[in-house]
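Sharing in case it's useful to others searching the archive later.

Someone asked me privately for the predicted structure of Sodium/calcium exchanger 1-like protein, so I'm posting the question and my answer publicly. Question first, with the sequence:
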Amino acid sequence: MNGWLCFVCSIMVIGILTAFIGDLASHFGCTSGVKDTVTAISFVALGTSVPDTFASKVAAQNDKYADSSIGNVTGSNAVNVFLGIGIAWTMAAIVNAYRGRTFRINPGSLSYSVTLFCVSAAFCCIVLMIRRRAGGELGGPMLTRTLTTILFVSIWLFYILMSCLEAYEVIPGF
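And my answer, the predicted C-alpha cells:
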C-alpha cells in the first residue's frame, strides 16, 4: 500500500493523543483555576513545540539556508492544529452524533489569539527575510543572533501576555 497504512495509523494516533492531551490540559486548568485558553497557548503549545525545536536545530545545522528548519516548524504546527484537533473534533462529533447529541466547541477568545498570532508570525517572517538579505538568517554575527533571539522571545511573551489578558477580560477582544 506504499505507506498509506502507516500514514493513516499515524494520523489516527495523532488525533487520539491530541484528544488525550486536550482533556489532560483541561483537567489541569480546572484543578489549578487556569482557563482552557491560557493552558492551550502556554503549556500545551510549549509541550508540543519543544521536541520540534530540537528537530529544527538539527535541520538548520544541515541546511545552507535553514529553509528546512523553518518548514519543519510550519509543517509540525500545521499537523498539530489541522489534523490533531480536526481529527479529535471529528471523532467527538461522530461519537456525539451516535449518542444523539450535538457536539459544540466554545470558540472563547480564539479570534483575538489567532489574529495576534498571525500578526506576530508575519513580523517574525519579515525579520527572517531581512536577516537573509543581510547574510545571516539563523547565523551571522553573535550580536545580531542574540538580538534576534531576544526579539523573538519577547514577541512570544507579548503574545502570551496579551492573549491571557484578553482571556481573563482585562482587555477587550474582538
